[in-house]
């Protein structure tokens, strides 16, 4: 199992956001978390990544069979977890190139050779149809929303994580850019078949490219419904109403 979340309870500012939350993400699988606004979808991504603003008060998070709840964010990243954020941070004065090279060296615990690094970056930038100048500019500073998202996928291609969390990746992307980033993610997954992907989204368009094996509805602080891709179509057509009225729990309706 790539990721196991067991009876997780999370709070921020003494407010309970997740409770009795359970999720199993198998090696090589694609899962999507959907649900109404404000139910804790982005909270989940931050908790998995170790955001210190969120406090795990019960339960456990296992990555490749080892608990990570006490690990810092950088330690989780080194283990192979990557979060593509909804609103990537801007860091003035740190070039995109220096950030990437340092991150790769830290993850691999050895300094990456300049020639190989430049070759890998140029290939990835070309695949993503990115402006080559972005690699020399301050990290995400002055980038458009679409450029920031492409830069997140650039990091995926270079850092080579084994668990990818996509938090609202489709936000700020036009149709062509969404297609390009999804094609690159799929290419990466084909080359690294054991990689698991957890998608957090409000919309179904990204799921037309990254077809999930499992679809989960998050509400009432935990997963209330699990199904296959057909569940996406039902949500698009009918909304969440009928599921919010039921008492289903994770796994009970897995198709």
Give your account of this protein's structure:
The chain has 255 residues and is α/β, with parallel strands linked by helices. It has one domain: 3-Layer(aba) Sandwich (Rossmann fold), CATH 3.40.50. It has 9 helices and 12 strands. It has helices at 41-49, 73-79, 96-108, 114-127, 145-159, 175-191, 205-209, 230-238, 241-244, and strands at 3-12, 15-25, 30-34, 55-63, 66-67, 81-84, 91-95, 138-139, 163-167, 196-200, 214-219, 222-227. A hairpin with a 2-residue loop joins strand 11 and strand 12 (222-227). Helix 5 runs parallel beside helix 6. The two termini are 19 Å apart. Mean pLDDT is 92; it is low at 248-255.
Oligomer: single chain
- Report the structural category: alpha/beta
H/E topology pattern: EEEHEEHEEHHEHEHEHEEHH
Strand adjacency order, main sheet: 6-9-10-3-11-12
User: In CATH terms, what is the fold-level topology?
Assistant: Rossmann fold
Question: How much beta, percentage-wise?
Answer: 25-35%
Structure summarized in a few sentences:
It contains 9 helices and 12 strands. It is α/β, with parallel strands linked by helices and 255 residues long. The strands form 3 sheets. A 6-stranded mixed sheet has the order 6-9-10-3-11-12, with helices on both faces. Strands 2-1-4-5 form a 4-stranded antiparallel sheet, with helices on one face. A two-stranded antiparallel ribbon has the order 7-8.
């Amino acid at each position: 199992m790539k990721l196991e979340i067991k009876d997780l309870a999370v709070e921020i500012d003494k407010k309970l956001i997740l409770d009795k939350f359970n999720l199993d993400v198998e090696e090589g699988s694609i899962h999507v978390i959907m649900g109404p606004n404000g139910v804790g979808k982005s909270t989940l991504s931050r908790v998995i990544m170790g955001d210190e603003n969120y406090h795990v008060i019960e339960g456990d998070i296992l990555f490749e069979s080892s608990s990570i709840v006490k690990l810092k964010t950088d330690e989780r990243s080194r283990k192979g977890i990557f979060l593509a954020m909804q609103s990537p941070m801007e860091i003035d004065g740190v070039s995109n190139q220096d950030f990437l090279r340092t991150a790769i060296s830290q993850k691999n615990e050895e300094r990456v050779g300049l020639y190989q690094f430049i070759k890998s970056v140029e290939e990835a930038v070309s695949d993503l149809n990115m402006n080559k100048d972005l690699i020399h500019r301050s990290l995400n500073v002055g980038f458009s929303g679409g450029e920031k998202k492409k830069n997140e996928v650039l990091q995926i291609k270079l850092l080579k994580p084994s668990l990818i969390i996509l938090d609202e990746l489709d936000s700020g992307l036009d149709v062509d850019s969404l297609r390009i980033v999804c094609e690159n993610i799929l290419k990466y997954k084909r080359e690294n078949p054991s990689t698991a992907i957890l998608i957090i989204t409000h919309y179904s368009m990204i799921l037309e490219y990254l077809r999930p094996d499992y679809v989960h509805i998050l509400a009432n602080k935990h997963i209330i419904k699990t199904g296959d891709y057909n569940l996406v179509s039902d949500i698009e057509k009918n909304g969440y109403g009928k599921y919010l009225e039921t008492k289903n729990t994770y796994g009970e309706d897995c198709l």
